[in-house]
Amino acid sequence: MASRIERSPLIDWWRTIDRVLLGLILTLMLAGIILCLAGSPAVADRLGLPQFHFVKRQILFMVPAAVVMLLVSFMTPRHVRRAALLVYLGALGLVFIALLWGVEVKGARRWVNFAGMSIQPSEFLKPAFVVLVAWAFSEGGKRKDLPGNIIGFVLLFSTLVPVALQPDIGQTGLMAICWGGLVFLSGLHIFWVVGFSGVGVVGLAAAYKFLPHVKARIDRFSDKQSGDTFQVDNAYESFMQGGWFGKGPGEGTIKRILPDSHTDFIFAVTAEEFGIIICLVVLLLFMIVVLRGLVLARRNDDPFCRLAAAGLVMLFGVQSVINMAVNVQLMPAKGMTLPFISYGGSSLISLALGMGFLLAVTRKRPRAETFTPEPYAAYQAPFAGERA
Amino acid sequence: MLDRSAYPDPRHDQHDAPKPLHDEAGKGFLAGLFSMRMDKSRQRLIFVALIFFGLYGAIASRLVHYARNPETTQVLRRASGESIAAARPDIVDRNGVVLATDIKMMSVYAEPRRIIDKDEAVELITAIFPDIKPRDLREKLINRRGFVWIKREVTPKQQEEVYRLGLPGIGFMAEHKRVYPNGNAASHILGAVNVDNVGIAGIEKYVDSLGLADLGGAGFSVQADDLQPVRLSIDLAVQHALRDELAKGIVKYKAKASAGMIMDVETGEVMALASLPDFDPNNPAEALDPNRINRMTVGVYEMGSTFKALTIAMGLDSGKININSTLDARSDLKSGKYSIGDYHATHRVLSVPEVFIHSSNIGTARIALSVGVSAHQAFLRKMGQLERLRTELPESAEPIWPQKNWGELSTMTIAFGHGLAVAPIQAVMAVGALVNGGRLIPPTFLPRTEAKAREVAREVIKPETSEALRFVMRLNATKGSATKAAIPGYFVGGKTGTAEKNAHGHYQKDKLFTTFMAITPADKPRYLYLVVMDEPQALPETYGFATAGWNAGPVTGAVLERTAPLLGQVPRTDPPANPFPTMVKLGAWGTK
User: Fold this and answer.
1) Domain that holds residue A244
2) Pick the catalytic residue: B187, B305, B410, B466?
3) pTM for the full model?
4) CATH of residue B343
5) B131 lies in the same domain as B174
6) Which residues of B fall within a CB distance of 8 Å from A240?
7) Which of B220, B317, B443, B479 has the most CB atoms around its CB within 10 Å?
């Protein structure tokens, strides 16, 4: 370890970064590659691709993902905000391009072809959106001249409407949940918290009523006999076959017929081959990342950093919870990937970006740098009075 | 940490100039509603962390639950909605002879998800079971369910062959198959079960209603050994004899159908009940043919002259007439545009016993009129003829009668058994009450003691009236239309009934429904016999007659001759000394 007298960006980074979080995320990335070895060859076989096609690509994406994450983690909060703004504008533009000229896959326009690669811009929208909302709310909390609340609402609609139009109800819901979480954390009156929960319920009811595939999925979840429960049934069978210790790597059979065994249902394949104990370990990794992230957010004295960290953790956590809950049949089927474990280039880079932001905003900062006591004294009294 | 959150956070980025949260006083509630309170975020973060902890905890507990409860194929099958044939109790007759029992059979099932080569599986399996269509089987196997039946109840040889195929994902399960060793003999009583061993008709369905289905549904694999057999009131030997004689009768008289039953009038126990054509409960699909219904309980018929017994009983019991009353049968009875005449016309004044043995429509109609319309209706209701009779058999039928417009004409025709259609078992119950001393006892297919029968019985007529009915029925067997059933030694009494079948609102002269009721012994009846025949034909030896006395009567006689010894009736060479003392005392017609 370098001496504290030496100052270089790299050493500063190493000293201030949360190494627990970094280690956990890198572990998850590695786990993603190992589990991809279990889940994807069967899918590759079915699609007539070379057996390790998806594994190779996963590793191929893992490298830039790690680089993106590490580079982003060097940023200061100000850089984070700017980067988020840039990514947000770029991704939103691409979302519109996808809507207008995108390739339609399974009835949805989510993909744009860019330099020989197809990317899913809504993936990149997510972390940038969360950072911007955190910014808006934290500024709104401090500054009267900046209408933070209004910006927060504008961001919500400008982001969710195009994504919902794709349609991508999963991502829309995910972002809505994170936005709601940020509103809650911003200390908005409990009236709004209740109100937005109500809007959420109404939104869900509307989705059930007006979107046939949402209705079908919920119906299937509530009534097992009602129709095609192929994926869910097979996921269930995977857990049954796997038991505590699994059948062993490569020994899985259900994965051969699970269509999304390398993406949405990788958790079930993990159970079949590596056992439910390994599933619990993966679950524990996610839980520690989330709880660690929330602890770091709570410790952070800067409102923006606190909100941004909490928002990014929620994004990551909610996504992992939804994926695993669908796998163990606690929720109706919803296309949601398991962060870092599921195969998917766009998703991987976007997650790396988000985790990079998280690492950046949770870096330890010298307090003196931000401590400005004079203006503070001016408003301490009325506030304390209200408290009493 | 906590103290710090008690006051607003003083530390911000340098470029963010901090400003008071509430710089103007008096904004009140509305301002509070819209303000962001960053100081709250720390507490609320704890709340968020707790939610996440709970969510991950829920998923983890589900995972642990999965690991600890690895489900077997059994459970998988239930999840996929397939059912398995559960054990059922044996059904035995009153002497303990087995009527229905379970045997273990192997069934072949598939778990389509585990079958590797579906085409190969289809090819090999259909080679063993040629009756399975390859297309159907392929459809089953590409199905996404965890469990499908391939073939229920296979032979040991077929099982061996399938086993030797060595196909993964194909398995065997022991199931219970219902067998009826006596075939058709008691089919309408026993009913049938479906392939899942669930009762779908007859006593089998009744047994399920006792709670077996619930047990099976709750997942208890009930063993046949644990189940108490269900004992019926039926006597298999009597049942067989009844069915055999009915079958002979159908052939001889070229009838469309025939049915009969024997009831113990002291207890209401049905000793035998058959309805031909019937079916083999081992092949319950036969029962679907509408011609194979149980004519004793499901069919409703105008019972014809057998109903005259009810009318005479009503007249005697009401006191409007006595056994020595005379009724004018010299000319037809007119009612509006209708005219009621006698088939065996006598054109003279008749006594009550004569009305009965000559089966005088005019006489009975006059008796009913003397009692009155509403009393007639009330009497029939009391006798259980206007309401659906329910027994253990789930199959029953509602009587058909003029509910809205029961006028004098209805009373006149119903008096001699037209205009009211009842299930024959209902008429048996009523006639049983007429001859057993006046106690109406609902029929049952389960054993019942006389003591128990007295508890459920209802007094409907006086014992003297009952004696009069026994007397006229006996008289009818010696002097009237029931002579063909009067088997010597059993002191038989009886009544014929012939009704023209009603089709499209018209009575058809050539399509008859004949009935015959017999009691033995008439001095103290124990068993009541009923035989009905649907469209029996006239034969040369019946001198061109097709009325009940010529077909249902002799068939009843044959049944009685065969079954009375089985039922413990001892033939008497000498008739009883004074069988009808009251009738003698009254000096009734025919006692001299």
Assistant:
1) 13-363
2) B305
3) 0.55
4) 3.40.710.10
5) yes
6) 66, 70-71
7) B443
